[in-house]
Amino acid sequence: MSITLSQYLTTAVQNNLIDSELSALISAVAQLSKDINDKVTHGALAGVLGMAGTDNVQGEHQKKLDVISNEIFVSGVEWTGSVAGMASEEMDDCLVTPSQFKRGKYLITFDPLDGSSNIDINAPIGTIFSITKAPEGEITNESFLIPGRQQVAAGYVMYSPQTILTFSFGKGVVMFTLNMNTGNYILTKENVQIPATTEEFAINMSNMRHWAAPVKEYVKDLLAGKDGPLGKNYNMRWVAAMVAEVHRVLCRGGIFMYPWDNRKPEQPGKLRLMYEANPMSFLIEQAGGAASTGKGAILDLQPEKLHQRVPVFLGAKEEVARVEEYHKKF
Ligand code: F6P
Ligand code: MN
Fold first, then answer.
1. Among the atoms of ligand 1, which is closest to the Cα of residue 126?
2. Which domains does the chain have, with CATH numbers?
3. pLDDT tens across 194-204, in order?
4. pTM assigned to the model
5. Ligand 1 close to Cβ of residue 240 (< 6 A)
6. Close Cβ partners of 45 (under 8 Å, ≥ 6 residues apart)
7. How confident is the model at residue 294 (pLDDT cuts 50, 70, 90)?
C-alpha cells in the first residue's frame, strides 16, 4: 500500500521523531512546491520564462521563475505558525514572520529555484530548503548563522520528468514522488544510501584552467583512468543544477564538485553555504556519504554571512576523503 507524505509525517509525529510544527512546515513546503511545479511544467504557457529584469544580492540576473518561486515560497510558509523568520537566495536580508501570523520555533532558509540556467531549456531545476531552530529574541540576519550540523531538517524538490521531494529530519533520507493526478506525494524510496566508492564524477570542466592545484591534480588523475594512479576509469556528468547533481549522487552514487576558482578569486566558491551547501551536505551525510570544503566537513563551518559561498565536494565517502588527501598533498 502506498504511503502519502501526510501519513508519513503524522506517523513521525506520533513516534516523537519530529514535533507538529516541523511536520506542518515540511508539509507546507511540499504544498507550495506543487505551485512552483505548476508554473515550471507550464513554462511558456504560464508566461514564466525569461528574465525578470532585476539582479539579486549576489549580482546575478534574476529569471522570472526565480522571483515567482520566491514569492510562492514565502507565502507558502509564513502563515504556518512554524517559522520565526525566512532567508532566501533571492532576498538581500532575512524576512521576519509578519506580525499577523504566529511566530514559530524554526527558521527556514531556501533557494527557491536552483539551476536557473536550465529554466528556459526545459532541463532539471529544483527548490532547496534548510530548517534550524530559531534563537530566542529578535530575528536578524545574524540569527541564521547556525552551523549546518544543527539543521533539524533539510531537503529539496526536483522538477524534472518526475517531481520528487527528498528530505531528512536526521533519521535517514526519504524520497516522495508527486502523483500529478491526485496531487499526493507518495513515498518511493526510504533509507537512501550512497556507495562509499564510485566511478562517476561531476564538475564543470570548462573551469579547469582556473582551479587551484589540488583540484587540477585530482581531476587530471580521474581523467587518466585505468592507466593512471587511481587505476580505474571514471565517467562524467554535468546537469548544471545542484539539485539534479545531488539527486543523481543519492540515487546511484558519485562525487559532485564545485571548487574555488580564480575567476572571482575573492569568492571562496560559487555555491552558497546556507541554502545550497548545508542542506545538501545534511542529506549526503544522512545517506552515508561525505561533504567537504576539501579541508573539512561543510556541516562544521561556522557561517559568517547569510549569502556566504563555499567550495563543495560531496558524495561517495572514500572519493571525498581522496579529495581531502589531494588538498593536504598539493
Ligand atoms: O545555484 C548555482 C548553480 O545553478 C547550481 O545549481 C549549479 O550546480 C551551478 O550553479 C551551475 O554552474 P555552472 O554555471 O558553472 O554550470
Ligand atoms: Mn542555486
1. 6
2. 5-189 (3.30.540.10), 200-329 (3.40.190.80)
3. 999 999 999 99
4. 0.98
5. yes
6. none
7. very high
